[in-house]
Amino acid sequence: MAVLLSTKASAMADWRAALLALQPDLDVRLFPEAGNPEDIEAAVCWSTHDMMELRRYPNLKLLISMGAGVDHLLRPPGPPPGVPVARLVDVLLTSAMTEWVLLNVLRFHRQDLEYRQQQKERIWDELPAPVTPTRRIGVLGLGALGGDAAQKLAGLGFPVSGWSRRAKDIPGVTCYHGDAGLNTMLEKTDILVCLLPLTPETHGIINGRALARMPRGSYLLNSARGGHVVDAALLSALDSGHIAGAALDVFVPEPLPPSHPYWTHPKVIMTPHAASATIPASVAPQVIENLRRIKTGEPFINLVDFAAGY
Ligand code: NAP
Ligand code: GLV
């Protein structure tokens, strides 16, 4: 069995080394050097790979995303028919995302934008003290990433709510689901954190109507996918002061063109899709485990539900 790896050139060697460290005899092929297409039984790919190209491998039995998200693999034309898709769930992927969320929640909560501006202008002015138990956080998506961020924020003493597709019960987090649940949560959210997968249901979910439901002066964090946010609606809410600040890690398109207004907006904090990157050595065990299951026929781990879209 051969495994095809496909990602940006700079990451390829790390991926290969991580897999070979666990299974030295694994036949790893680095795209585009796939060799005989009939040898390839698994492909481990990032968004750079063309899904039509995967139709060249008649014996492909599993496609693994190099990240937590799979929107880049599922969007049309999608993976070859009949090939299951697995994604990554990983302790380092989760902890890095929670760090990014905590960094930006605390940045807004502790009035960092205002104090940095005051420092620039050499203004000594103590602002009203922030009060943690009254700063309401709402987390969209309570999966591997959103669930952890919500619990860590609750651990700091913030009142935390979360929204998922199915009903959930998470200690210390007020859980909502469904359309009505979303509206109720938005109305009680001072800092909204988006950690949803991008699916047809969640595309554009942070639109003008959703932002208008949030209290005036609230904040947005998006480290899920750029497609969740309607940029024109967010820019208009920032300019009117309805939304006081946004921390954005993901955009449409990526890289964001230099002319985009986010780059210079005084209320926007940007990172270049860097909130949580996959560390190949950390995720290699679950990839090797799924390759083993191709041989044994056991159910794959972290399998994507095509009907749900994530
Ligand atoms: P996950 O474990 O699959 O969790 C997804 C959560 O979203 C679940 O709670 C799910 O509800 C909820 N959800 C999905 N569709 C919904 C809908 N229509 N309405 C309400 N809730 C919905 O995913 P994850 O591992 O936490 O990752 C989330 C996303 O983060 C990824 O898809 C990816 O786009 C993004 N990400 C970004 C970076 C970065 O560096 N910026 C890094 C990693 C991941 P249920 O619990 O009911 O299923
Ligand atoms: C990164 O964006 C991921 O989906 O892991």
Annotation keywords:
single chain, 310 residues, alpha/beta, Rossmann fold, 2 domains, five-stranded parallel sheet, 9 helices, 12 strands, 33% helix, binds NADP nicotinamide-adenine-dinucleotide phosphate, binds glyoxylic acid
Question: What is the compact description of this entry?
Answer:
With 310 residues, the chain is an alpha/beta fold.
SSE map:
Layout: E1 2-6, H1 9-22, E2 27-30, E3 40-45, E4 62-65, H2 71-74, E5 85-86, H3 91-109, H4 112-120, E6 137-140, H5 144-155, E7 160-164, E8 173-177, H6 178-187, E9 191-194, H7 208-213, E10 218-222, H8 231-240, E11 243-248, E12 268-270, H9 280-296
Parallel strand pairs: 1-2, 1-3, 3-4, 4-5, 6-7, 6-9, 7-8, 9-10, 10-11, 11-12
Characterization of this structure:
This protein has 310 residues and is α/β, with parallel strands linked by helices. The protein has two domains: 2-90 and 278-296, 3-Layer(aba) Sandwich (Rossmann fold), CATH 3.40.50; 92-270, Rossmann fold (3-Layer(aba) Sandwich). The protein is built from nine helices and twelve strands. The strands form two sheets. A seven-stranded parallel β-sheet has the order 8-7-6-9-10-11-12. It has a five-stranded parallel β-sheet with strand order 2-1-3-4-5, covered by helices on one side. Helix 1 crosses helix 9 (280-296) and helix 3 (91-109) packs across helix 5. It starts with a strand and ends in a 14-residue tail after the last helix. The mean pLDDT is 98. The structure holds NADP nicotinamide-adenine-dinucleotide phosphate and glyoxylic acid (GLV).
